Protein backbone atom coordinates (compact mmCIF):
# COMPACT_ATOMS: atom_id res chain seq x y z
CA UNK A 1 0.00 0.00 0.00
CA UNK A 2 1.44 3.39 -0.95
CA UNK A 3 1.61 6.27 1.48
CA UNK A 4 -1.14 8.02 -0.41
CA UNK A 5 -3.45 5.01 -0.01
CA UNK A 6 -2.80 4.34 3.68
CA UNK A 7 -5.15 5.13 6.53
CA UNK A 8 -4.42 8.40 8.31
CA UNK A 9 -3.69 7.09 11.80
CA UNK A 10 -1.82 9.99 13.37
CA UNK A 11 -1.63 13.78 13.01
CA UNK A 12 0.60 16.44 14.48
CA UNK A 13 -1.42 19.57 15.18
CA UNK A 14 0.96 22.53 15.33
CA UNK A 15 -1.35 24.93 17.08
CA UNK A 16 1.17 27.73 17.58
CA UNK A 17 4.52 29.07 16.46
CA UNK A 18 4.99 30.92 19.76
CA UNK A 19 7.55 29.52 22.19
CA UNK A 20 9.15 30.87 25.35
CA UNK A 21 12.37 29.08 24.40
CA UNK A 22 14.55 29.96 21.40
CA UNK A 23 16.52 26.78 20.65
CA UNK A 24 19.17 27.24 17.98
CA UNK A 25 18.26 23.92 16.33
CA UNK A 26 14.47 24.46 16.23
CA UNK A 27 13.10 22.84 13.06
CA UNK A 28 9.95 25.02 13.24
CA UNK A 29 11.88 28.27 13.71
CA UNK A 30 9.56 29.06 16.62
CA UNK A 31 10.37 31.40 19.47
CA UNK A 32 9.21 34.36 21.56
CA UNK A 33 8.37 36.33 18.40
CA UNK A 34 6.17 33.56 16.98
CA UNK A 35 2.39 33.78 16.64
CA UNK A 36 -0.55 31.41 16.95
CA UNK A 37 -0.99 31.51 13.17
CA UNK A 38 -4.19 32.01 11.21
CA UNK A 39 -6.18 28.95 12.29
CA UNK A 40 -9.05 29.82 14.65
CA UNK A 41 -10.10 27.64 17.58
CA UNK A 42 -13.21 26.57 15.67
CA UNK A 43 -11.11 25.63 12.65
CA UNK A 44 -8.94 23.44 14.88
CA UNK A 45 -12.11 21.88 16.32
CA UNK A 46 -13.27 21.18 12.77
CA UNK A 47 -9.92 19.51 12.04
CA UNK A 48 -10.34 17.27 15.08
CA UNK A 49 -13.82 16.30 13.90
CA UNK A 50 -12.52 15.50 10.41
CA UNK A 51 -9.71 13.38 11.82
CA UNK A 52 -12.11 11.45 14.07
CA UNK A 53 -14.49 10.90 11.15
CA UNK A 54 -11.59 9.57 9.05
CA UNK A 55 -10.73 6.96 11.70
CA UNK A 56 -7.55 8.64 12.94
CA UNK A 57 -6.35 7.12 16.20
CA UNK A 58 -4.03 9.70 17.76
CA UNK A 59 -3.12 13.36 17.65
CA UNK A 60 -0.18 15.24 19.08
CA UNK A 61 -0.50 18.92 19.98
CA UNK A 62 2.81 20.59 19.25
CA UNK A 63 4.28 24.02 18.53
CA UNK A 64 6.07 26.23 19.23
CA UNK A 65 5.08 25.61 22.80
CA UNK A 66 1.50 24.29 22.79
CA UNK A 67 0.91 25.11 26.46
CA UNK A 68 1.17 28.81 25.51
CA UNK A 69 -1.89 28.41 23.27
CA UNK A 70 -4.75 29.68 25.46
CA UNK A 71 -7.37 27.31 24.03
CA UNK A 72 -5.35 24.11 24.41
CA UNK A 73 -7.62 22.81 27.23
CA UNK A 74 -10.66 23.24 24.96
CA UNK A 75 -8.97 21.35 22.13
CA UNK A 76 -7.90 18.57 24.49
CA UNK A 77 -11.47 18.24 25.78
CA UNK A 78 -12.85 18.08 22.24
CA UNK A 79 -10.29 15.54 21.06
CA UNK A 80 -11.03 13.40 24.11
CA UNK A 81 -14.76 13.65 23.41
CA UNK A 82 -14.11 12.37 19.89
CA UNK A 83 -12.13 9.44 21.36
CA UNK A 84 -8.82 10.48 19.88
CA UNK A 85 -5.65 9.48 21.71
CA UNK A 86 -3.85 12.65 22.81
CA UNK A 87 -0.21 13.54 23.37
CA UNK A 88 1.16 17.02 24.07
CA UNK A 89 4.76 17.71 23.10
CA UNK A 90 5.88 20.44 25.51
CA UNK A 91 9.07 21.92 26.87
CA UNK A 92 7.35 21.48 30.27
CA UNK A 93 8.15 24.97 31.54
CA UNK A 94 4.68 26.57 31.38
CA UNK A 95 1.93 24.28 32.67
CA UNK A 96 -0.89 25.79 34.70
CA UNK A 97 -3.25 23.91 36.99
CA UNK A 98 -6.01 23.99 34.35
CA UNK A 99 -3.76 22.04 32.01
CA UNK A 100 -2.69 19.53 34.65
CA UNK A 101 -6.38 18.94 35.29
CA UNK A 102 -7.13 18.49 31.58
CA UNK A 103 -4.17 16.13 31.19
CA UNK A 104 -5.46 13.88 33.97
CA UNK A 105 -9.15 13.94 33.04
CA UNK A 106 -8.55 13.30 29.35
CA UNK A 107 -5.82 10.67 29.59
CA UNK A 108 -3.22 12.89 27.92
CA UNK A 109 0.31 11.64 27.39
CA UNK A 110 3.28 14.00 27.42
CA UNK A 111 6.57 14.22 25.56
CA UNK A 112 9.46 16.61 26.07
CA UNK A 113 12.98 17.43 24.95
CA UNK A 114 15.83 17.29 27.45
CA UNK A 115 19.38 18.27 26.58
CA UNK A 116 21.58 17.75 29.62
CA UNK A 117 21.62 16.87 33.28
CA UNK A 118 23.58 20.10 33.80
CA UNK A 119 21.23 23.08 34.13
CA UNK A 120 23.57 25.57 32.49
CA UNK A 121 24.09 23.34 29.42
CA UNK A 122 20.37 22.65 28.97
CA UNK A 123 19.64 26.39 29.33
CA UNK A 124 22.33 27.17 26.74
CA UNK A 125 20.44 25.06 24.20
CA UNK A 126 17.02 26.52 25.02
CA UNK A 127 18.35 30.05 25.53
CA UNK A 128 15.98 30.40 28.48
CA UNK A 129 17.46 30.78 31.95
CA UNK A 130 15.83 28.44 34.43
CA UNK A 131 14.31 26.19 31.75
CA UNK A 132 16.15 23.10 33.02
CA UNK A 133 14.86 23.59 36.56
CA UNK A 134 11.26 24.07 35.41
CA UNK A 135 11.35 21.22 32.88
CA UNK A 136 12.84 18.75 35.33
CA UNK A 137 10.41 19.72 38.09
CA UNK A 138 7.40 19.32 35.80
CA UNK A 139 8.68 15.99 34.48
CA UNK A 140 8.72 14.82 38.09
CA UNK A 141 5.26 16.25 38.70
CA UNK A 142 3.82 14.51 35.64
CA UNK A 143 5.25 11.19 36.76
CA UNK A 144 3.99 11.73 40.31
CA UNK A 145 0.50 12.34 38.88
CA UNK A 146 0.72 9.13 36.85
CA UNK A 147 0.80 10.93 33.49
CA UNK A 148 2.78 8.94 30.89
CA UNK A 149 5.78 10.88 29.59
CA UNK A 150 8.42 10.28 26.90
CA UNK A 151 11.76 12.06 26.69
CA UNK A 152 13.87 12.92 23.66
CA UNK A 153 17.53 13.91 23.72
CA UNK A 154 18.87 15.70 20.65
CA UNK A 155 22.64 15.97 20.28
CA UNK A 156 23.22 19.59 19.28
CA UNK A 157 26.93 20.05 19.97
CA UNK A 158 30.14 18.13 20.58
CA UNK A 159 30.74 17.17 24.18
CA UNK A 160 27.10 17.59 25.17
CA UNK A 161 26.13 15.49 28.20
CA UNK A 162 23.60 13.43 26.27
CA UNK A 163 24.27 10.14 28.04
CA UNK A 164 23.99 11.86 31.39
CA UNK A 165 20.72 13.45 30.23
CA UNK A 166 19.34 10.01 29.41
CA UNK A 167 20.47 8.66 32.78
CA UNK A 168 18.88 11.61 34.56
CA UNK A 169 15.55 11.02 32.82
CA UNK A 170 15.55 7.30 33.50
CA UNK A 171 16.53 8.00 37.09
CA UNK A 172 13.44 10.18 37.43
CA UNK A 173 11.34 7.29 36.15
CA UNK A 174 10.93 8.15 32.45
CA UNK A 175 10.66 4.75 30.78
CA UNK A 176 10.97 5.77 27.12
CA UNK A 177 13.86 7.99 26.08
CA UNK A 178 14.79 8.45 22.43
CA UNK A 179 17.60 10.26 20.71
CA UNK A 180 18.39 11.95 17.44
CA UNK A 181 20.83 14.21 15.66
CA UNK A 182 19.80 17.70 14.65
CA UNK A 183 18.38 17.96 11.15
CA UNK A 184 18.72 20.81 8.65
CA UNK A 185 15.28 22.35 9.03
CA UNK A 186 14.31 25.74 10.42
CA UNK A 187 17.08 27.47 12.37
CA UNK A 188 19.16 24.28 12.34
CA UNK A 189 19.51 24.64 8.56
CA UNK A 190 21.58 27.80 9.05
CA UNK A 191 20.07 29.29 5.93
CA UNK A 192 20.35 26.14 3.77
CA UNK A 193 17.28 25.06 1.80
CA UNK A 194 15.58 21.98 3.36
CA UNK A 195 15.82 18.73 1.41
CA UNK A 196 13.87 15.48 1.31
CA UNK A 197 17.10 13.58 1.91
CA UNK A 198 17.24 14.76 5.52
CA UNK A 199 13.76 13.40 6.28
CA UNK A 200 13.44 9.93 7.78
CA UNK A 201 11.40 8.46 4.90
CA UNK A 202 8.27 7.63 6.91
CA UNK A 203 6.66 10.96 6.04
CA UNK A 204 3.02 10.87 4.85
CA UNK A 205 2.80 7.15 5.66
CA UNK A 206 -0.27 6.94 7.97
CA UNK A 207 0.58 10.40 9.31
CA UNK A 208 0.54 14.10 8.50
CA UNK A 209 1.11 17.46 10.12
CA UNK A 210 -1.23 20.44 10.11
CA UNK A 211 0.54 23.75 10.59
CA UNK A 212 -0.72 27.01 12.17
CA UNK A 213 -1.79 28.38 8.77
CA UNK A 214 -3.72 25.22 7.85
CA UNK A 215 -1.05 23.76 5.59
CA UNK A 216 -1.03 19.96 5.54
CA UNK A 217 2.50 18.54 5.37
CA UNK A 218 3.81 14.96 5.40
CA UNK A 219 5.33 15.54 8.87
CA UNK A 220 6.42 18.39 11.12
CA UNK A 221 9.95 18.24 9.73
CA UNK A 222 8.69 18.11 6.13
CA UNK A 223 6.86 21.42 6.49
CA UNK A 224 8.42 22.64 3.24
CA UNK A 225 6.28 20.08 1.37
CA UNK A 226 2.61 21.09 1.10
CA UNK A 227 -0.10 18.51 0.43
CA UNK A 228 -2.94 21.03 0.66
CA UNK A 229 -4.62 23.35 3.15
CA UNK A 230 -7.54 22.56 5.46
CA UNK A 231 -8.78 26.14 5.22
CA UNK A 232 -9.91 25.55 1.65
CA UNK A 233 -10.06 21.75 1.21
CA UNK A 234 -11.52 19.02 3.45
CA UNK A 235 -8.83 16.85 4.99
CA UNK A 236 -10.44 13.71 3.55
CA UNK A 237 -9.90 15.16 0.05
CA UNK A 238 -6.32 16.16 0.77
CA UNK A 239 -5.45 12.71 2.13
CA UNK A 240 -4.81 10.52 -0.89
CA UNK A 241 -5.38 13.44 -3.26
CA UNK A 242 -3.15 14.36 -6.20
CA UNK A 243 -0.97 16.81 -4.26
CA UNK A 244 -0.32 14.27 -1.52
CA UNK A 245 0.36 11.55 -4.07
CA UNK A 246 2.98 13.75 -5.70
CA UNK A 247 4.66 14.54 -2.36
CA UNK A 248 4.68 10.87 -1.32
CA UNK A 249 6.19 9.92 -4.68
CA UNK A 250 8.93 12.53 -4.26
CA UNK A 251 9.80 11.16 -0.80
CA UNK A 252 9.80 7.58 -2.09
CA UNK A 253 12.01 8.65 -4.99
CA UNK A 254 14.69 9.73 -2.52
CA UNK A 255 14.30 7.12 0.25
CA UNK A 256 13.01 4.13 -1.73
CA UNK A 257 9.77 2.21 -1.19
CA UNK A 258 8.64 1.50 2.36
CA UNK A 259 9.82 3.11 5.56
CA UNK A 260 13.55 2.48 5.27
CA UNK A 261 14.76 4.69 8.08
CA UNK A 262 13.97 4.99 11.76
CA UNK A 263 11.73 7.90 12.66
CA UNK A 264 13.07 10.05 15.51
CA UNK A 265 11.05 8.74 18.47
CA UNK A 266 10.94 12.07 20.27
CA UNK A 267 8.72 13.43 17.51
CA UNK A 268 6.53 10.44 16.75
CA UNK A 269 4.70 8.51 19.48
CA UNK A 270 3.31 5.89 17.07
CA UNK A 271 6.80 4.64 16.16
CA UNK A 272 9.30 3.77 18.84
CA UNK A 273 13.01 3.30 18.36
CA UNK A 274 14.15 0.26 16.36
CA UNK A 275 16.59 -0.72 19.06
CA UNK A 276 18.41 0.96 21.90
CA UNK A 277 18.84 4.46 20.45
CA UNK A 278 22.05 5.95 21.78
CA UNK A 279 21.96 9.75 21.45
CA UNK A 280 25.75 10.07 21.41
CA UNK A 281 25.83 8.18 18.11
CA UNK A 282 24.45 11.35 16.57
CA UNK A 283 21.81 9.73 14.39
CA UNK A 284 18.99 7.23 14.52
CA UNK A 285 19.29 5.46 11.19
CA UNK A 286 19.54 1.68 10.86
CA UNK A 287 20.89 2.13 7.32
CA UNK A 288 24.02 3.51 8.91
CA UNK A 289 24.35 0.82 11.58
CA UNK A 290 26.34 -1.65 9.49
CA UNK A 291 29.22 0.61 8.61
CA UNK A 292 30.68 4.03 8.91
CA UNK A 293 27.90 6.55 9.28
CA UNK A 294 27.35 9.29 6.76
CA UNK A 295 28.43 12.74 7.76
CA UNK A 296 25.65 14.37 9.79
CA UNK A 297 23.71 17.10 8.07
CA UNK A 298 24.68 19.53 10.80
CA UNK A 299 28.07 19.28 12.50
CA UNK A 300 27.46 18.53 16.18
CA UNK A 301 30.30 20.87 17.09
CA UNK A 302 28.37 23.99 16.10
From TrEMBL:
<dbReference type="GO" id="GO:0003824">
    <property type="term" value="F:catalytic activity"/>
</dbReference>
<dbReference type="GO" id="GO:0046872">
    <property type="term" value="F:metal ion binding"/>
</dbReference>
<dbReference type="Pfam" id="PF04055">
    <property type="entry name" value="Radical_SAM"/>
</dbReference>
<dbReference type="InterPro" id="IPR058240">
    <property type="entry name" value="rSAM_sf"/>
</dbReference>
<dbReference type="InterPro" id="IPR050377">
    <property type="entry name" value="Radical_SAM_PqqE_MftC-like"/>
</dbReference>
<dbReference type="InterPro" id="IPR023885">
    <property type="entry name" value="4Fe4S-binding_SPASM_dom"/>
</dbReference>
<dbReference type="Pfam" id="PF13186">
    <property type="entry name" value="SPASM"/>
</dbReference>
<keyword id="KW-0479">Metal-binding</keyword>
<keyword id="KW-0949">S-adenosyl-L-methionine</keyword>
<dbReference type="InterPro" id="IPR007197">
    <property type="entry name" value="rSAM"/>
</dbReference>
<feature type="domain" description="4Fe4S-binding SPASM">
    <location>
        <begin position="202"/>
        <end position="248"/>
    </location>
</feature>
<keyword id="KW-0408">Iron</keyword>
<dbReference type="InterPro" id="IPR013785">
    <property type="entry name" value="Aldolase_TIM"/>
</dbReference>
<keyword id="KW-0411">Iron-sulfur</keyword>
<dbReference type="GO" id="GO:0051536">
    <property type="term" value="F:iron-sulfur cluster binding"/>
</dbReference>
<protein>
    <submittedName>
        <fullName>Radical SAM protein</fullName>
    </submittedName>
</protein>
<feature type="domain" description="Radical SAM core">
    <location>
        <begin position="14"/>
        <end position="148"/>
    </location>
</feature>
